[in-house]
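Provenance and format

Records in this collection were gathered into a single text stream. Each protein contributes a sequence line and a token line. The two records reproduced below are adjacent in the stream.
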Amino acid sequence: MASWPGLAEDLVLPFRVERTGLRGRFLRLGPLLTEILARHDYPVPVSGLLAELIVLTAALGSALKYDGIFTLQTNGDGPVSILVADMTSAGALRAYAQFDAGRVAALADGPDLSPVPALIGQGHLAFTVDQGQDTERYQGIVALEGSTLTDCIHHYFRQSEQIDAAIKVAVAHDGGAGEGERWRGGAIMVQRLPDVSGAPERGRGEADEDWREVVTLMGSARTDEIVDPALAPDRLLYRLFHEPGVRAFAPLPVSAGCRCSRRRVARTLAAFPREEILALMEDDAVSVRCEFCGADYAFDRGAIEALFAA
């Protein structure tokens, strides 16, 4: 198998299990994940949930063919009301959460509960692919069922007639809170497509056996192996799948990136009635904060009048 020196984190590595023809993705996030979460300084339980959502977004988004934005979002009635992560087709990721800090803190003194029921509660998970104004937006929605977000994704796979996939996600937290905090995450995902090109001629029974074997091998990966930057991704794939044979392809880089800008914010403000925007003024200015990256955009009265004059 080929190796890519220096590329051990913030990448997606496509692969193929040779004997079975099954395709997969190996994903590992390090500095990228820490950068996104450090922008928000959420409580550790919230950051952990958001880290898992970011990993799932990168894994699923990298497996799709689209030109635009792929989004995963949860809405629930628990302490964490909203989680959002999105990824552009160029591999730029961003994310944020909305939560009740008091309710989250109260859980720290209670029993150790599964994160989705305890933090998100009852609600739904939405998948969205948006390729711009001239195309129809695709959205899939499934109820939150399971103890983790990964369980909820598997529930979605089971409900879908078009997706036959399995995924294992790992998230690790190191260094406590604050500036020394580090996050790492990763995933291995395998897919069974209805028309696997190049797959050997095999009957349905043999194909099902191949699928069970590959999913079992994938499940043997340990959390420390998935997230460890000292372990080359291709070496881990070889350990898991050397018996049926595995081929890794060129890695796809991913990065932390927000799409907000002063121009975008101005365009959004101009879409509302002038009186509504003026009513939002404090200290003779309207301030808008990006929930994804924390950037602040201030518009004084003159700038607001110029928006509506234009």
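Adjacent record:
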Amino acid sequence: MKTLKIRNKNAILELLKSGANFEKITLVDNLKQDNLTKEIVSIAMKRRVPINKMSFKKMVKGRSGQSREVLVGFLVWQDTWSLKKLLDSLNETDKKPFFLLLNKINYESNIGIIARTAFAAGVNGIIFQGDENQFINEETLHLSVGTIARIPLVKMNIFQAIKELKKTSTKIFSIQMDGESIFKENLSGPIAFVLGAEGKGLSEEVSKKCDKKLSIPMRQGIDSLNVGISAAIVIYEKVRQEGKIV
């Protein structure tokens, strides 16, 4: 169990409303509170989250290093899920798997974008291979506006994850340049999209384990899209086909 600092007020508010566990919230003493801050304090008090006040000089400097923070949340991070536990949870709630498998995606900005888009669109699990501390940290929490703490995360070898998902009749699609157009594929039902690391994409070994290669059509002269943007496009193509947030 670890504690992560959140500097984004909107993220703190969303997480408080979602029932996330906070160790404490710290804010500047005698702070002139805007409406967002008032709502945060009000919900925190109702949930009995400790609120600590301190002088501005004692508050740590923010991300830019130029000014000090005035309100900080300290989130108690819950452990990652196992794939079995996640699948059992979906079965209990009569939901179909809608997963992203991320193979060694390292840029925190991309991780944050993917996590927020996935949560907004109804993806019910992200399976990632790589360094957990690089995937789950204060930056990805900040850049996802807190949503990386609200979507089930599974740390797992990509090959093992594909093997286990195939047992559940989940269709597994790798997203690559030389695949068939995603807009022509039936994406209904249990789905997992596999996306590769920035600049490297997916290896042929991973691709061969998937059911099919899919690509995002692009004009000539463009060789790839940012992985966060690619994830958003394929996620919402499934949502469009389903006609709803699944």
